[in-house]
Amino acid sequence: MNLPTLLTVLRIAMIPVFVVVYLVPGRWTQITAAGLFAVAAATDWLDGYLARRLGQTTRFGAFLDPIADKLIVVTAVVLLTADHRSIYFTLPALVIVGRELVITALREWMAAMNARGLIKVTPLAKFKTGVQIAALIVLLAFPPTSALPLVVLGYGLLYLAAGLTLISMISYLRMAWPVLRRGLEQ
């Protein structure tokens, strides 16, 4: 167990704490939950940076890191969907969660076809992740009943993230298309 992998495991371990803090009634608990989510997002960046910088990349870390990312994002989206109870939140939330499922399945398919290395994280996907994290932090910290400009900002970022999510998913599917087509012909 190296430091980058330990950070990934800690990110997963933070999820139940994040959920409990978010669900406890009170204004400051939502701000605290948003802070925990922000820390989890920072550890995502930090574990990747440290793995490359220290030469501690491992197959297990490469496997676990995207799972940790998806778990924390999907958890936040589910919590927020329950609070917002709105088609305006639910639609982009479905796009974000749906993309996570499609890309996870795509990665598994590519691994089964011995073509895992063809799908690399793109700059667009990294930008999408940043916008998505910013949207979720704002919406976690400011519930639907709080200051309207902040909620509108969160929704705007969420819709931008959903649009970028679709574009990045299409990009990944295009990269994988030759392998997907080959698999359909077998």
Overall description:
This protein has 186 residues and is mainly alpha-helical. The chain has a single domain (3-185), classed as Four Helix Bundle (Hemerythrin (Met), subunit A) (Up-down Bundle). The chain is 84% helix and 0% strand. The chain is built from six helices and no strands. The chain has helices at residues 3-23, 27-53, 59-84, 87-112, 123-141, 148-185. Helix 1 runs antiparallel to helix 2 (27-53), helix 1 packs parallel to helix 3 and helix 5 packs antiparallel against helix 6 (148-185). The model has no long low-confidence stretch (mean pLDDT 91).
Mean pLDDT across all amino acids: 91
Number of helices: 6
Largest sheet: none
Distance between the termini: 39 Å
Structural key phrases:
6 helices, single chain, Four Helix Bundle (Hemerythrin (Met), subunit A), 186 residues, 84% helix, mainly alpha
Summarize, please.
This protein has 186 residues and is mainly alpha-helical.
List the helices and strands and how they pair.
Blueprint: H1 3-23, H2 27-53, H3 59-84, H4 87-112, H5 123-141, H6 148-185
Helix pairs in contact: 1-2, 1-3, 2-3, 2-5, 3-4, 3-5, 4-6, 5-6
